[in-house]
Amino acid sequence: MTTTVPKIYSFEEFAGVADAVADHVINAQNQALSSISPNNNSSTSSSSSSRKGSQVQSELNISNISNKSNTESIETLNSSSQLSSTKSSSNISKSSSKKEKIVNKRFKIAISGGSLISVLSQGLLKRDDVQWDKWDIFFADERLVPFSEKDSNYGIAKAEIFDKLAAQGKPSPKVYHIDESLINDAQEAADEYEKTLIKNFANKDSVRLPLFDLFLLGCAPDGHIASIFPNDHEVLREKLAWVVPVENAPSGPSRRITLTIPVICHSHRVSFVVEGAVKASIVQLIMERPEKGLPASVVNALAAGRVSWFVDKAALSECY
């Protein structure tokens, strides 16, 4: 496997990660909802605060970033869809149609579970520039347990984000979760969730893969991302399906579904959010030994140029 080191943004504490991820998400939102197509070579995040952070360059050497930003600054993206009002009637008609499409644009984001939910809750709920009512939220994976259980990704997200939005009187996003009645049949649950994706990303015959504006992932100490585990070669090598069942996960609930590597890597942006010293050894392995073929290393390579990592210093402590 070709060595591919993504952009890595490191922060002293968890709060810095949460705020930077919020900046990154909102930047992706703004680009998705504007008429400007996202730049696939840009996976940085913007910040208008004075938080301090650092970017790890391709050699994994940590360098300080200006105190004015906790990540590389990004130019503010403004809509370029304005058409002259002096155009002919046919051009005015085209302009109206184009504006209608812009109004109807949605921000399509996939999220995994675990500590990522806390990062999003802490970083996004306090912001006033999140256009929640224009969000379509999908799940990168799901543990097939009742939503009321602590292992349910949707259940955690509902408690930490969606219920709190309602309590704050903020608009609600559209949330696409699994059919809870199918938790005893992983294959059927996967098939039904794939149908949900097909419905939202057009007919599968005309769209090879769904195209998310942003795909957010964590990474567990054992190296699994979403519910793609390091030694599950069948899932790792899946090329056609959008969603697959996982019957014997080696940790946590054994029965799951997960979106596949091709779906993840087809996204406009893929971002990993990792924190804590317990993740340090796996982060080192991912970054320094890509030939091991860990799921995150595969994503780093296949989505090269569109991948970013947001980590605290503890998670990066074993990288040279």
UniProtKB/TrEMBL annotation:
InterPro entries, A to Z: 6-phosphogluconolactonase_DevB, 6PGL, Glc/Gal-6P_isomerase, NagB/RpiA_transferase-like
SUPFAM superfamilies reported for this sequence: NagB/RpiA/CoA transferase-like (SSF100950)
Cell compartment(s), UniProt: Cytoplasm
Biased composition annotated in UniProt, kind: Low complexity: 34-50, 73-95
Biased composition (Polar residues): 51-72
Domain of life, source organism: Eukaryota
Task of the protein: May be involved in regulation of tRNA subcellular distribution.
UniProt name for this protein: 6-phosphogluconolactonase-like protein
Source organism (scientific name): Wickerhamomyces mucosus
